[in-house]
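testing teh design pipeline on a random one, pls ignore if ur not involved
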């Protein structure tokens, strides 16, 4: 149900109704709502429905001025109560439209779910980190980013709140100390900062849905779709090519080499070539787009010349299947269907296997490759959805890398992992104390808990370098490794023997701390 006029809008989804009113002053809403609510009541009575007065609420969105007057809006003679937060279709609205209250509710939900998750994944036992990460990506992250296209604003306060919410599941994935920075947790878990993920989704939605207008109005949107009425659906059948007859034959082909795209078609009368056409397409075009473009241009030329009984031959089976599909929604492809159906002559589509020595096909293939070398582009295509997703994701990863390079936090982690990676999952409780510098080492205990920074051996300050490579308490175990220890910790941790040694040392230190 949808109803819209100048100053009000009615929208319904399932059993949820929303009425939007617009006025220059809040007191006007009382009179404006009377007639609308009466119509609602009569409509409900007609269909034996009853609206709940207790569940019905109203909220006012302020514009510049503070709300001082609250209008009386009535349902079944009972005044509807005002609320500062109204939930509709899973999104919580507030008077300022800041959506910070929405994020507060999301945070409460994530905390509850994360606590349940922690029952089956602890520091040294439970689900593997890879499984916990999959749960985060498949469930928790989607809960956080639900409706992000509606509520996200690229503001410091909102971004900070999102990172705060993301922190809970990242701690469960990495099993790191709670003092570890967000930046280090993101690197260890391989999870993109959620504010960058939100920006990516909003940008992707903006591009794909066409909210962001293209600068070039002459380009073709190959993927724009249309709704076709069932009785207007058409299928263009095709057959296998045998040989050229004593009539017109048109061979089409598309090619992509070295990032450039070309398209061409050749017209034959019997065995004789009478004309050919070549086009260079924008570099973002795919081979499929080039093949369909060639078919479209060939049909235009057939119609222009008013040729009768024409065989149109292509080696693109995917293009022919698109023309034969009753479920095809792309406007560009369906326009080709209409041209063939409405043409007074006869156009027979045929498929030929590529690179089998067929004269016309080899000629069209040669011309398509020749078209690639043209300096000027003959046809511009919009960026496809796949390309949009890839570009936006690449930009997101680059932004994450830039943020990581310039971050003042996670300096120890940066020594081990300089590059961001979404495939990385470091969830070892013991090793992550080395990767972050946050753990049982005395330097960390001194920094955060005001304990002594002297090592248990009493010789030096108890930092990672000393404990793992120099401390006499572990000299016997260290000598048994039989590996060169003059390398950096980053290189040494690449060896399984040294990782086992590190786990043993850290576990022993934990036991010492408990005993003391």
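output:
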């Amino acid at each position: 149900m949808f109803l819209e006029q100048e100053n009000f809008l009615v929208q319904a989804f399932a059993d949820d109704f929303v009425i939007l009113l617009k006025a220059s002053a809040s007191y006007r809403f009382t009179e404006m709502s009377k007639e609308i609510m009466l119509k609602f009541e009569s409509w409900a009575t007609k269909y034996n429905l009853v609206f709940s007065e207790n569940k019905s609420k109203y909220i006012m969105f302020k514009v510049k001025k503070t709300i001082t007057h609250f209008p009386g809006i009535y349902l079944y003679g009972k005044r509807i109560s005002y609320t500062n937060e109204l939930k509709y279709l899973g999104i919580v609205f507030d008077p300022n439209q800041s959506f910070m209250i929405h994020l507060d509710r999301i945070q409460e939900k994530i905390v509850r779910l994360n606590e349940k998750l922690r029952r089956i994944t602890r520091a040294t036992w439970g689900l593997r980190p890879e499984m916990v990460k999959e749960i985060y990506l498949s469930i928790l992250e989607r809960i956080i980013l639900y409706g992000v296209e509606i509520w996200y604003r690229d503001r410091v306060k909102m971004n900070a709140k999102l990172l705060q919410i993301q922190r809970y599941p990242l701690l469960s994935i990495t099993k790191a100390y709670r003092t570890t920075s967000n930046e280090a947790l993101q690197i260890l878990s391989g999870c993109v900062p959620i504010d960058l993920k939100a920006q990516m989704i909003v940008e992707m939605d903006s591009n794909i849905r066409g909210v962001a207008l293209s600068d070039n109005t002459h380009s073709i949107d190959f993927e724009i779709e249309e709704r076709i009425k069932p009785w207007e659906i058409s299928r263009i059948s095709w057959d296998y090519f045998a040989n050229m007859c004593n009539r017109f034959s048109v061979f089409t082909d598309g090619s992509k080499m070295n990032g450039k795209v070309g398209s061409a078609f050749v017209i034959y009368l019997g065995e004789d070539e009478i004309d050919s056409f070549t086009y260079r397409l924008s570099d973002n075009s795919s081979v499929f787009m080039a093949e369909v473009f060639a078919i479209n241009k060939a049909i235009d030329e057939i119609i222009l010349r008013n040729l009768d009984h024409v065989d149109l031959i292509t080696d693109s089976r995917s293009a022919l299947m698109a023309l034969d599909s009753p479920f095809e929604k792309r406007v560009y492809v369906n326009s080709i269907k209409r041209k063939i159906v409405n043409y007074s002559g006869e156009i027979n589509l045929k498929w030929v296997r590529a690179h089998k020595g067929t004269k016309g096909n080899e000629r069209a293939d040669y011309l398509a490759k020749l078209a690639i070398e043209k300096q000027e582009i003959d046809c511009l295509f919009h960026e496809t959805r796949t390309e949009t997703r890839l570009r936006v994701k690449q930009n997101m990863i680059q932004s994450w890398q830039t943020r990581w390079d310039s971050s003042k936090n996670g300096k120890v982690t940066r020594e081990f992992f300089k590059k961001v990676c979404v495939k990385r999952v470091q969830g070892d409780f013991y090793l992550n104390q080395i990767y972050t510098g946050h753990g049982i080492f005395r330097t960390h205990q001194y920094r955060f808990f005001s304990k002594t920074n002297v090592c248990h051996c009493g010789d030096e300050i108890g930092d990672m370098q000393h404990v793992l490579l120099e401390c006499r308490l572990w000299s016997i175990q260290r000598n048994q490794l039989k590996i060169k220890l003059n390398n950096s910790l980053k290189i040494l941790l690449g060896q399984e023997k040294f990782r086992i040694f590190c786990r043993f040392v850290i576990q022993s230190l934990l036991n010492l701390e408990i005993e003391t």
